[in-house]
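Need a sequence for this fold. Nothing fancy.
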């Protein structure tokens, strides 16, 4: 059987994505059924960039399936500091683990690794490019809370230029009918042209605005907030100027639709005030929980493991 990797959310067809999300929902309901299914299997988490949720949720996902975990959590603690390439590292890791998740500051690094790998490689975030497992998490959250992935108006707010979760989510949701986007960002942090052109070529309705106000939020089903990606800025002054451009607080939430869900891939910095956390429309902590189910379903799918019921 050919090895399957996950580099972009579009690597799975819409049908495959739906199947994976169904599996994630089943895992959520029947945790015990899956608790030993990966016994004897190992995941390697190869993180060249900091992470809390993504790395720990991969590790929790494999442990919940009865498997084991090995890996490193920073470039400094790996042989990358001695000059080893990701291609060599993955060849070695292929001898120690059955599946690997890699996060890297360089766009395309997990893809390079996958070409030399004899185990499935998952892109756990490559620079400002893509973050497909966050997208599976986001889609699972939206589908579970709203009951559908079509006919939705989605507002994406903040750093749409460097925010890789935004790029992956737009590409994925663009495959569903009746989707439209409201892109809310400062001029300097608008989506990259390849993302904009992708929406145009698929004739997806979208608007680009700067203000997060009542008019912008009026028709939103989802408001997806993001932090300004400090680590991808070339100069500190630009970051400082833009970091508090948006702050979603109680006053702003009073202007938003009553059934709008607020999502955020996290970590948040200042862009959502903590006073919003108690609002029933604040769904970002639930979203982090869905991330574990999505990654459990992904591990099983890529490893071709099926539960016998
Ligand atoms: C995101 C990422 O790493 O791109 N975080 C995550 O994986 N949950 C978002 C971010 O860092 O802002």
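Here you go.
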């Amino acid at each position: 059987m050919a090895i399957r990797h996950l580099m972009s959310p579009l690597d799975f067809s819409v049908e495959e994505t739906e199947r994976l999300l169904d599996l994630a929902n089943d895992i959520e309901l029947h945790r015990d059924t899956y608790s030993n299914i990966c016994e004897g299997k190992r995941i390697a988490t190869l993180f060249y960039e900091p992470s809390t949720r993504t790395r720990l949720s991969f590790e929790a996902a494999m442990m919940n399936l009865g498997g084991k975990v090995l890996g490193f959590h920073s470039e400094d603690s790996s042989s990358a500091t001695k000059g080893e390439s990701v291609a060599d590292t993955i060849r070695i890791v292929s001898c120690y683990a059955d599946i690997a998740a890699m996060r890297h500051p360089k766009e395309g690094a997990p893809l390079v690794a996958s070409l030399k790998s004899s185990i499935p490689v998952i892109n756990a975030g490559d620079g400002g490019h893509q973050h497909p497992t966050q997208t599976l998490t986001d889609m699972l959250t939206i589908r579970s809370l709203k009951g559908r992935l079509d006919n939705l108006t989605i507002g994406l707010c903040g750093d749409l230029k460097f925010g890789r979760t935004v790029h992956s989510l737009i590409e994925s949701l663009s495959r569903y009918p009746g989707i439209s986007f409201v892109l809310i960002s400062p001029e300097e942090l608008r989506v990259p042209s390849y993302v904009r052109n992708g929406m145009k070529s698929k004739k997806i309705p979208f608007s680009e605005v700067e203000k997060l106000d009542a008019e912008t939020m009026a028709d939103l089903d989802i408001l997806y907030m993001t932090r300004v990606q400090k680590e991808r800025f070339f100069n500190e002054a630009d970051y400082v100027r833009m970091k508090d451009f948006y702050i979603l607080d109680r006053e702003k939430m009073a202007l938003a639709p009553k059934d709008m869900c607020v999502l955020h891939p996290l970590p948040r910095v200042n862009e959502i005030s903590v006073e919003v956390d108690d609002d029933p429309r604040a769904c970002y902590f639930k979203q982090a929980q869905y991330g574990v189910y999505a990654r459990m379903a992904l591990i099983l799918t890529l490893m071709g493991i099926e539960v016998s019921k």
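For context: The pocket of N-carbamoyl-L-aspartate is lined by residues 53-54, 125, 131, 134, 164-165, 226-227, 265-266 (CB under 6 Å).
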